[in-house]
Amino acid sequence: MGALDGKVAFITGAARGQGRSHAIRFAAEGADIIAIDVCAQVKTVDYPTATTDDLDETVRRVRATGRRILAAEADVRDYDALKQAVDAGLAEFGRLDIVVANAGISTTAPTLEMSDEMWTTMIDVNLTGQWRTLKAAVPHIIAGGRGGSVVIISSLAVQMANANLAHYSAAKSGLVGLMRVLAKELAPHNIRVNTVHPTTVATDMVLNDVTYRLFRPDLEAPTRADFEKAASAVNALPMTMTEPEDITEAVLYLVADSGRYVTGTQHIIDAGGRL
Ligand SMILES: NC(=O)c1ccc[n+]([C@@H]2O[C@H](COP(=O)([O-])OP(=O)(O)OC[C@H]3O[C@@H](n4cnc5c(N)ncnc54)[C@H](O)[C@@H]3O)[C@@H](O)[C@H]2O)c1
Fold this sequence. Notes:
Layout: E1 8-12, H1 17-28, E2 32-37, H2 52-63, E3 69-73, H3 79-93, E4 98-101, H4 116-144, E5 148-153, H5 166-186, E6 191-198, H6 209-215, H7 224-234, H8 244-255, E7 266-269
Parallel strand pairs: 1-2, 1-4, 2-3, 4-5, 5-6, 6-7
Bound molecules: nicotinamide-adenine-dinucleotide (NAD).
């Protein structure tokens, strides 16, 4: 018996990192997966976003669990593409129970020097993209009449201010407002909506030179070890950073029956960093 036997989950940004981890674990718990990722470079982003090969690897690893997956290349800035992907998943699997709005980007610049393009791209992907995801998918959960669960991946950037991340922090804070309103609107349908706020997670979003320089502006060419030292200093618990699987545990709690009466909440996984 898996925690998600017979369920169907839609996950964005599923080609790698946290999205891939959620997809594999959900499948191992008995769910079929509808997965999308942009699989192309997002303009303004200084590290590589995912590729078609990455999404193929997620597909391979989900299938290795014995569950089904329907994957598509879609940009969360394109509502029609999202709707097409979810509708195709519905046609294939016959139901939808879970949405994890996870796709996101990170860019950095001082607030007052940031280009208009960097600001608007961030809001379009990390805030409006999540709303488009929900708009395309949640009506299918409502139509199923069985209830369900929506998890929106926000960030510790809501609880902690970091220089150079005003646009990211604004987008991720906006998701909390979106979550709270939607939780109220969907409660009569027994659909729960929550946000998850991770501290640093060991994924390609942070394991790159841009982030190393952000954490260690004092060094000319900081290494991963230099970055890890600074990342550890933020935490109260003795650890460096979380792994995608740590975040999956929290997401799984929220989407499975374990979280059946939990809605409208912010789940913080920060090793005590905000204390
Ligand atoms: N890594 C961290 O330290 C950290 C901390 C807090 C929150 N988060 C959030 O967690 C989520 C997952 O990030 P991750 O750590 O797995 O990083 P990641 O870069 O490995 O994964 C993000 C995925 O989103 C995809 N994506 C980006 N723009 C897209 C678009 N326009 N349309 C569709 N897909 C798109 C990327 O291709 C990538 O596969 C993001 O929302 C991120 O903001 C990350």
